[in-house]
Structure formats: C-alpha cells, structure tokens
Amino acid sequence: TDVLVVKTPDEAGEWVASRFTATIATRPDAVFGLATGSTPLPIYRALARQAAEQKLDLSRVRGFALDEYVGLPEGHEQSYRTVITNEVVKTVGLNPELVHVPNGAIDGIRTAGERYEEAIVAAGGIDWQILGVGSNGHIGFNEPGSSLASLTRVVKLAEQTRQDNARFFDSIDDVPTHSITQGVGTILRARNLVLLAFGEHKAAAVASAIEGPVTASVPASAIQLHPHVTVLADEAAASQLR
Ligand code: F6R
C-alpha cells in the first residue's frame, strides 16, 4: 500500500485526476468506480479541469457507483443516482448512459446486486476504484462485519453511518436504514484502488486500514490484500499512522 500525505484535498484530487487522464488517453472507454460523499469531490473537479486542458474526449468513459440507498423515491435529491448525476456526470461531463448506479428501488431489489455484478463483468471490470472511508472503517457501505469476499448486495447501515450522513437529510429519521453496495470482494476485483481520507475524524480508520490486521471488523483493511493501492490522506487523517 502506497501512502501519500497531501497538504490539501485539492492536491489529492489533482494527483488522482492525473492518473485517470493518463488512463483515458490510452483507453478512452476506461471504467471508473465512483464514490459519493464529500471526500471524492476534489477528484471530480480536478478531472473536469485537466480533461478540458488536455482536450480529452470523455464521451466513452464508463462508471459504476459504489452504492445507493434502498427505498428512496426516484429522483430524491439524496439518492446516489441524483448525487452522481449532479456531482460527477455533470461536473466531469460524462455520458449519463454510461454511468451505472445500483438500483435501490424496492421493486426488484432481490436481484439488483447480481445484476450489478453482471454489468461490471460485462464492462470488463473496473480500472480505477475510488474509495472514501467511513469513520467506522467502512468502504462502500460495507459496514464492520462484512465478509471480505462479499459481492454487491443489500446491507443494513450502521447507526454511526446514519448519524454521519444525517447532515444530508432534514433529520436522522429520514436517513434510509439499508443500502445496496458493491461488496468488499467486488472492490478488490478492481485493477487499481485509490482511497482518500481527509480530517482528524478519519485518522483511526486510516490507521486500522493500513496498519491494523486484515479483518472484517474493519472492512477498509481489505485494501491490504490488493496489489495496486494508493492511499491519499491529509496530515490530520494520517496522524495516527506510525
Ligand atoms: C460513498 C461511500 C462511503 C463514503 C464514506 C465517507 O459512496 O461508499 O463509503 O466514502 O462514508 O464519506 P465522506 O466522504 O462523506 O466522509
């Protein structure tokens, strides 16, 4: 696991975006695993800027979101379909038809995970998977206790995660109880992983992910099993590393 300590989130965003543009330059239909939340936003901004500067054609770039809430009405402003459309597809300028999000609708939820796995396989797998980390060590919405071999499936959100994400909703009661997420095993199949973390509230999770034992109790520790991982953390998030 390579660890880069950055001064600012924007520095991390520029570094990751430059790897992505290099990939797209040689393979215009490269496949990216997309995270939501606050952490990856600097990547999407930097990618838009660098792609414009390099006059890079993004029209064939493909994407797969990590996760989605279960049961939000279609078009809900906090559904990750909406968030991915607004913060990634529009910001970066991607073709919306090539960007997939797990289907969190109750109707069909029992087979949605399997269908998502099939779509990822049909795309030839994910080239670069972007990851944030939860303060409790989750990646995607794989909460502590998730099998390290898990695939895309419906999971119950940890209370900590619902509290952390309550900032996006009117009240914690409005935060969904379940989500559909790429599994830890799905994430490990991506050819390259980048995990970003900013702020002191991520320091314990970052230290356990990189230096702790590989354990389902800290799903982010599974990145130690992957041969091509870069962790980008600011000084606060890296402060508990030895
Ligand atoms: C988002 C996701 C989550 C977040 C994590 C950190 O798609 O899968 O694992 O990456 O909860 O969230 P932020 O970046 O908002 O601190």
TrEMBL record:
GO terms for biological process: carbohydrate metabolic process; glucosamine catabolic process; N-acetylglucosamine catabolic process; N-acetylneuraminate catabolic process. It catalyses: alpha-D-glucosamine 6-phosphate + H2O = beta-D-fructose 6-phosphate + NH4(+). The keyword Hydrolase applies. Residues 11-225 form the Glucosamine/galactosamine-6-phosphate isomerase domain. CDD domains: GlcN6P_deaminase. One of its GO terms (cellular component) is cytoplasm. The active site is at residues 67, 136, 138, 143. Gene3D superfamilies: 3.40.50.1360. It holds the Pfam family Glucosamine_iso. Its EC number is 3.5.99.6. GO terms for molecular function: glucosamine-6-phosphate deaminase activity; identical protein binding. Catalyzes the reversible isomerization-deamination of glucosamine 6-phosphate (GlcN6P) to form fructose 6-phosphate (Fru6P) and ammonium ion. HAMAP family: GlcN6P_deamin. Belongs to the glucosamine/galactosamine-6-phosphate isomerase family. NagB subfamily. NCBIfam families: nagB, PRK00443.1-4. This is Glucosamine-6-phosphate deaminase. It comes from Lysinibacter cavernae.
